[in-house]
Amino acid sequence: MTIPRDIVSPPKTAVPSSPSPSSFFNAGTSPSYGTSYFPPAPEKQLKPFNTGDIKILLLEDINRTARELLQKEGYQVEFHTSSLQDIDLIEKIRDVHVIGIRSKTKLTASVLDHAENLLAIGCFCIGTDQVDLEYAAKRGVTVFNSPFSNSRSVAELVIAEVIMLARRIGDKSMEMHSGTWQKGSARCREIRGKVLGIIGYGHIGSQLSVLAESVGMSVLFYDVVPLMAIGKARQVKSLSELLVSSDFVTLHVPETHETRDLIGRTELMAMKEGSYLINASRGRVVDLQALWYEPPLIIDQPVLSDVLIANLCLENIYMCSEAMRSGHLAGAALDVFPREPSADGPYFNKDLARWATEIRNLPNIILTPHIGGSTEEAQEAIGAEVGEALLGYINFGCTIGAANMPEVALRSITVAEESHLRVIFIHQNRPGVLRQVNDILGDHNVDKQMSDSRGDVSIRAQEPLLARLACSR
Questions:
Q1: In which pathway does it act (predicted)?
Q2: Which of 156, 213, 241, 340 is an active site residue?
Q3: I want to staple 153 with a disulfide (CB 3.0 to 4.6 A). Which of 42, 104, 162, 378 is the partner?
């Protein structure tokens, strides 16, 4: 839906040949057929196209639950275990109707410009920042994600990292693997009675709150909107209040213009001495400029620490490696990074970024390759959730749960209702469009209709009751 065209009165004859799935969905992006097609067969078809015509591209080893669900429906499913380079992605996306991705594949405006038939994008993960949502909406491409299904997995990883950091398990394990027996309690602590500060009290943050209280921690949380606390957790009024009060600070926010560089040098200086930072959200929520600050070579400089080196790029990394030993922060756990390899393998090194090699040698830092939601249970649930959403959209025009479209849904049409059909129309939110649609359908009995807007995009779902409808494009 690049440039929606005016709706004109339909001609009296219907086109006898079947249009492609994309021509049915994306007004303004496909060649004009003059009219939309509805099968003349007496038996009701629940979709306006042949199921086998739908081409789906699944990247990044998406769980077999989704693959089997889509294949069972009869769609053409192409599966890849990794992401694709831009040139290969552009070539593959040209004629597919649905693409399924995780966090590595970047669907920018320049990539989406080559997607001639694309109807929907399935993000088989929590985040959607890897997709240009606004541009996708302008093209009439609906984006679905899974905001709930891996919340528990991420929360469990974080609570495990809290315990491991407090007991310095990472360092102790590495020492044992190298053959060193070093028993001692120095700088090892219990987490009972400690304060966990949660930045972002959404699906993950709230579940983490429950887990933390169950092991005896007190919970503070900061969010941009007032939220009902679970258990004994307490919402604080400002980020600074959380930072100065927490023994452990954990980030659970999306990457947006507002959250990028959320934690910078000032915030790190405000954290309690001997505290810990955990980042399992997005790598860029920590200010990349914070470590470009070059302080005097004073070994006990409090702002430079394990976590600073681990999160951010560094101009003079050796000087700061000395300064981090001040102990202002006792450690960090990082599951996300400003830059991440596009494929599995030995790629977390200096070729990725200058800091990649250095942080591997820093004390009491847990590094994991963006696996917060990577459990079998979570991936199976995500595959089912996003897969079902894609089926609902392709088969019935349901946009419930869409990340970039208004949410509309009409009841399912049964096979017995041979005279019913479904019309989904995505258009720019401008005056007069609905009047034009109603002029076309005015002579028919409209059984159900829904209309909603989201920014510059509107969507309208109608269920006319008639034997055949010729609808202009």
A1: Amino-acid biosynthesis; L-serine biosynthesis; L-serine from 3-phospho-D-glycerate: step 1/3
A2: 340
A3: 378
